[in-house]
Amino acid sequence: MALEDHHSAYLARAVAALEPDGRARVEELLEQLAEAARADARVVGFAAARRAEVAAGRVDPEPSNGLTEQELDVLLGGFLRIRDQEPRDDVSDWANAVVALLEDGLNELQKERRG
């Protein structure tokens, strides 16, 4: 199984494991992300895609497509803070799964840049 597939499966499990209160907390966090990033349409789109995943209970296999290295860095920092500071285990596990996918996307962009 490819690393990205493994991380997509991890995200799918984390989304499925969110309790109702955890889903509400994720919704709140993603709303804050969208509000903070309103000047960056792709970051807002990323937040919207994560909201749709949580609502539907299934994930987009390539959630970081189209994001720049700078956007991935900003998102990574935000999701690392959520993971490290969130008191709800289900929400911090979800954030950790998103971190893994963002790191994959960032690593892929850096490989492409190196040629």
Task: Write structural notes for this entry.
Helix 1 (3-17) runs antiparallel to helix 5 and helix 2 (20-36) packs antiparallel against helix 3 (41-56). The protein is globular. The relative contact order is 0.18. It contains five helices and no strands. The two termini are 24 Å apart. It has one domain (3-114). It is an all-alpha fold and 115 residues long.
Short account of what is shown:
Helices cover 79% and strands 0% of the residues. The chain has 115 residues and is an all-alpha fold. The protein has one domain.
Kindly state the percentage of residues in helix: over 70%
Quaternary structure annotation:
single chain
- Please give the alpha-carbon distance between the first and last residues: 24 Å
Envelope shape: globular
Q: Radius of gyration, rounded?
A: 13 Å
Order of helices and strands: HHHHH
Largest β sheet strand count, sense and barrel closure: none
How many helices? The count is 5
Count of extended strands:
0
The unreliable regions are none
Structural class: mainly alpha
Mean pLDDT across the residues is 88
Number of domains: 1
Strand content: under 5%
Keywords, please?
mainly alpha, 79% helix, globular
Element layout with pairings:
Layout: H1 3-17, H2 20-36, H3 41-56, H4 69-85, H5 89-114
